[in-house]
Each structure stands twice: as structure tokens, then as C-alpha cells.
Amino acid sequence: AQLVESGGGLVQAGGSLRLSCVASGFTVEKYPIGWFRQAPGKEREGLSCISSFDGSTNYADSVKGRFTISRDNAKNMVYLQMNSLKPEDTAVYYCATDTEATACPLYYYGVDYWGKGTLVTVSS
Fold first, then answer.
1. 81 in Cβ contact with 16 (< 8 Å)
2. Lesser CB count within 10 Å: N end or C end of the chain?
3. DSSP track, 2-46
């Protein structure tokens, strides 16, 4: 199984980006898939997750109302739409899955597949 992120870049505060995560070796409907981020000097933070069962979603308080996770089963992809970006959103963003999980949220210690990450930089 493999996950590959794309869509990061440099954006001004208040702007938007959409991150994409393509899965191979499994279908995105089979396991819950989440987005995490890690800023320099900080721990990896779980941001959002989409359930395999019913597509329900959840969000960390830090991104609730600004970020939206979605899934395209036909393309085997998961997206993270990020709006109203802030400088503190600057981080490497990862998609991940836990093949033992049956529901969201995902926890860092349970993840068994990580993408390599995509860098998001938000300038003030």
C-alpha cells in the first residue's frame, strides 16, 4: 500500500490550497484515511479523518470550519481543502491510514501507512 500527497505550496494568509492524496494497493473506501501535519519543532498533529464505513468526517479544533476532507472513490483519492489559511498552518502535511482501524479519528501511534508529505507555507 502507498499514499502520495500533492498540492502543497506557498500561499498568503487568508488564501486557500487543496491537498490531494492518491492511494495505491488498496481502495480509499476500505480504511479510514486522515490528514496530519507537523510543523518544525512540534509534534505531528491529527487534523481530519474520513470514515471508510459511511464517509463521516471529523476535524481537530484547530482547523474546524476552515478545512474540509473529502473522498473520490472513482479516482481513489482523498482531498483536504484548506481555506482561510494562517501562518500557523505552515507545516508538512501527511495523509495516512490505519488498516486496523474501523472508524475515525486516526491516532498517530496506530497509523501503519504514511505518505511522504507535502509542504505548505503560509506567509503573513
1. yes
2. C
3. EEEEE--EEEETT--EEEEEEEESS-TTTS-EEEEEE-TTS--EE
Residue 110 backbone dihedrals phi, psi, to 5 degrees: -95, -15
What's the mean per-residue pLDDT of the chain? 96
pLDDT at 102: 87
Residues 120/20, Cβ–Cβ less than 8 Å = no
Length of the chain: 124
Cell representation of residue 113: 501507512
The tens digit of pLDDT for each residue in 37-87 reads: 999 999 999 999 999 988 999 999 999 999 999 999 999 999 999 999 999
